[in-house]
Design a protein that fits this description.
The model has no long low-confidence stretch (mean pLDDT 86). The chain has 168 residues and is an alpha+beta fold. The chain has a four-stranded antiparallel β-sheet with strand order 2-1-7-6. Helix content is 40%, strand content 24%. Strand 3 and strand 4 form a beta hairpin.
Length: 168
């Protein structure tokens, strides 16, 4: 009789531990889902991409280097040929733990600009993660730039490609 009681007690303990592990995993995945939604909306409302026609930019560089235009003229012409695009899609590709024990989120914008951000600080005011980006980096011919005027809209859910694998 003691043996049956011990076996039954062991099974109950295993079910409780397994259930707790499963609930923690589900809670962690839900938190990662919230982070992805918040980050996608943050990018959507505060940033945009731009690129240049390489031939036009090369020609401007040559003209400036040869003294055919002043720096203010060059700068204005560069601004004129920039092709801006709003953020329409954000795909999350990976979560990992960084060397400083922060959460590193890898993502791709509009299928052309890959980047990452490290999450280590939560705002005391909003209770949300603080994001930082290396804007002005050239990735695949595109540059991430902060918008002059932010918005407060929600990105369409179908344009957020979630990563549900958890932290790798």
């Amino acid at each position: 009789m003691k043996r049956k009681t011990l076996i039954a007690l062991s099974i109950i303990i295993l079910v409780v531990i397994g259930g707790a592990w499963y609930m923690k995993k589900e809670k962690d995945l839900a938190e990662l889902h919230d982070i992805q939604t918040d980050l996608a909306n943050y990018l959507y409302n505060n940033y945009r991409l731009y690129t240049f026609n390489k031939e036009e930019l090369d020609q401007l560089d040559k003209d400036y280097d040869n003294g055919k235009m002043t720096f203010p003229e060059y700068s204005k012409r560069v601004d004129d040929i920039a092709k801006y695009s709003d953020i329409e899609k954000v795909e999350f590709t990976k979560f990992s733990v960084g060397p400083m024990k922060d959460l590193v989120v890898d993502f791709k914008i509009n299928d052309v600009y890959s980047d990452d951000t490290s999450l280590s600080t939560i705002s005391a005011e909003t209770g949300k993660w603080l994001y930082s980006f290396n804007s002005m980096n050239n990735r695949n011919g595109y540059v991430l730039e902060r918008k002059e005027k932010s918005t407060d809209k929600k990105m369409a859910e179908e344009n957020i490609i979630y990563n549900n694998k958890g932290v790798e």
